[in-house]
Amino acid sequence: MIVLSGASASGKTEVAKMLASKYGITKVITTTTRPLRVGEVNGRDYFFVSKDEFEQMIRNDEFVEFTIYNGNYYGSTKAQIGENKVIVIDPQGLKAYSQLGCQGIVTFFLNAEEATRLYRMLLRGDKESDAVKRIQNDKHVFNPTKLAKVDYKINSETQTVEEVTDEIYALYKAKIEKNK
Q: Cβ contacts of residue 168 below 8 Å, gap of 6+?
C-alpha cells in the first residue's frame, strides 16, 4: 500500500490519480458521516455511514485513523489496507499508518517549496487569500519536527507529476519485493 502525504499542492492527489491510470493502483475508499453529494456513489467515492455506525466502528477498532472535519467523521479502515492501493493522508494519518509496522505499507512525503505550491494553487483556481491561508497553516501542520518518519521523501518541485509517479511506483515495488 502506498501512503502519500505532503503539504497543500505538493502533488499528492495528482500522483494518486496517475498511479491509478498508469499502474492500476486503486484508491483507498475512506468512510465518512458527511452527506452524499450529487454525483457521488457510496462505495466508490466514500463509504457513507451514519454517526452511530461510525462510532460503533470506532468501538470495534476498525479504523487505522479517523478525524472530525467540519462536524463530520472521516476515517480509513484496516479492511482497506492492501497491496496496490494508495491513500492520500494528513500528518496524523501518516503517523497512524507509520505506527502499524506493516511490511506492505510504504510511506512517502512529497515536498515542494512554498512559492511553487502557491503558484500551483493559483493555477488550479484557488482564491489567493485561501491559498495563502493554506500555506500558513501548512507551516504548522507539516512542521518537520512533528512529522512521522516516512520511508521516502520525494521532491515534487523539480519533477513532472509523471516522473514523481514513476519514482514512487519504482520505490514501492522495490520495497515490496525486498520484504517478501
A: 2, 4, 15, 19, 108, 152, 154
Determine contact, residues 85/28, Cβ cutoff 8 Å.
Answer: yes
Whether 104 contacts 1, CB under 8 Å: yes
Tell me what the pLDDT averaged over the chain comes to: 93
CATH number listed for the domain at residues 2-28+82-179: 3.40.50.300
Q: What is the C-alpha to C-alpha distance for residues 13 and 152, in angstroms, rounded to an integer? A: 17
Q: What is the CATH number of domain 29-80?
A: 3.30.63.10
Q: b vs e for 11-46, b when ≥16 Cβ sit within 10 Å of the residue's Cβ?
A: bbebbbbbbbeebebebbbbbbbeeeeeeeeeeeeb
Residue with cell 456513489: 41
Name the amino acid, one letter, at 177: E
Distance CA 104, CA 172 (A): 9
When pLDDT is averaged across residues 37-61 and rounded to a whole number, the result is 96
Q: Decide if pLDDT at 69 tops 90.
A: no
